[in-house]
Design brief:
Blueprint: H1 3-56, E1 65-75, E2 78-79, E3 83-84, E4 94-105, E5 110-117, E6 126-133
């Protein structure tokens, strides 16, 4: 067996191994991503419920499904001419802006997007804004 034939066989074996392993890695990363989303939503649950109670002026906040539709990582900066930005987080600290999408909210079964941020000194998330999308 010459060198070119060996190289071809080794390349073929390598390609086969990659094709066998890659779908498993991709499936594992999708499962892990879903688990991380569920863990974050679990931590945000109390903020979501209190936000819906404030928005709908009710004590009973219900929704059918939830998902994180956007996450942005931000860093606080200090501007020499105007001092620190409005964020309460310390200079150079990371904070996150998260959009949580909810479906079938309340009696009217609206879709709602909650805009949350954690730039306070305690790093607790709070409601910055929201968008109600009526369910026609």
């Amino acid at each position: 067996m010459n060198l070119n034939t060996r190289y071809c066989y080794l390349s073929l074996i390598g390609i086969l191994l990659i094709n066998i392993i890659t779908p498993r890695v991709a499936a594992h990363s999708e499962i892990r991503e879903k688990q991380l989303e569920e863990a974050l939503l679990q931590q945000l649950h109390s903020v979501i419920i209190s936000s819906l109670k404030d928005i709908y002026k009710t004590e009973d906040a219900t929704f059918h499904c939830e998902r994180i539709s956007n996450i942005n990582e931000r860093v606080t900066v200090k501007r020499i001419d105007k001092g620190s930005i409005r964020a309460d987080a310390l200079h150079g600290a990371k904070y996150f802006e998260i959009t949580v999408s909810l479906c079938n909210v309340g009696v009217k079964k609206d879709n709602v997007e909650l805009y949350l941020k954690n730039d306070s000194p305690t790093a607790e998330f709070y409601l910055v804004g929201y968008n109600i999308i009526p369910n026609d």
